[in-house]
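Entry for pterin-6-yl-methyl-monophosphate complex. Fields follow.
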Amino acid sequence: QRGVSMSTLVMGVVNVTPDSFSDGGLWFAPDAAIAHGVDLLEQGADILDVGGESTRPGAERVSEEEELRRVIPVIRELSLSGARVSVDTMRASVAAQALDVGASIVNDVSGGVADPDMARVVADAGVPFVVMHWRGHSHTMQDRALYGDVVAEVCRELTARITDLCARGVGRHQLIVDPGFGFAKLPEHNWSLLAHLEAIQSLGQPVLIGTSRKAFLGRLGVPEGAQARPAAERDTATAATTVVAGLARVWGVRVHDVSSSIDALRVVTALEGA
Ligand code: PMM
């Protein structure tokens, strides 16, 4: 058992993509993705985040048809099995169909910017909506990693998203904010954001963080200019960031390796009870 006082939720990643940077191709067939989701639930995931479009730096977009073909069967099956499912999509049409087959959270890395219809879908459904800090699509986003004060600017840009979404009829109570680790961010930006989660929390919304297996963790202990460590060897560092998140009492962490983050949160719970 996880223990009752553990408050940070663990969102397990189910990528139905051939090219995600962290686990690309591993769970691409629907059956493999469903089995992976079931496995993450058994490890203790509270939510499964199902996505069909890679957002790794430089990635090109997939078509709507292809995205639907990838995610809808997986979301339907996992929802039927009783899982709480979020759909990781920038498309309003994909979000709407995912909600129809059982998803109950929409996770949009563009925070409702990429598709002008997203706000309406989320407002009509009344479901939780993850609004991530985003400065543009993956093929050019790293050109936009320019900040004077990254923490202040991410907070300001998330506030603008909250204002815009509320003006379009989305309830403030629906909004979960995410600083968008790795999205138009250099390693130093990611570290600043992780060091100042309280600033993101001061926006007054629940906070989700997605540091899992990201490149800034792959640079730890690796000399300048040398190859970053592979994504699969970033889970220990990821779990360490889950400790940071747990101590900060963030709402949730989005991770690939669920069991190590569950353990990390057990450490937090034990510490807090000591
Ligand atoms: N990162 C990725 C995809 N979706 N959603 C949220 N809310 N936050 C993130 O940081 C995030 C996301 C990219 O990672 P992946 O390719 O490993 O899924």
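NOTE: The longest helix spans residues 150-167.
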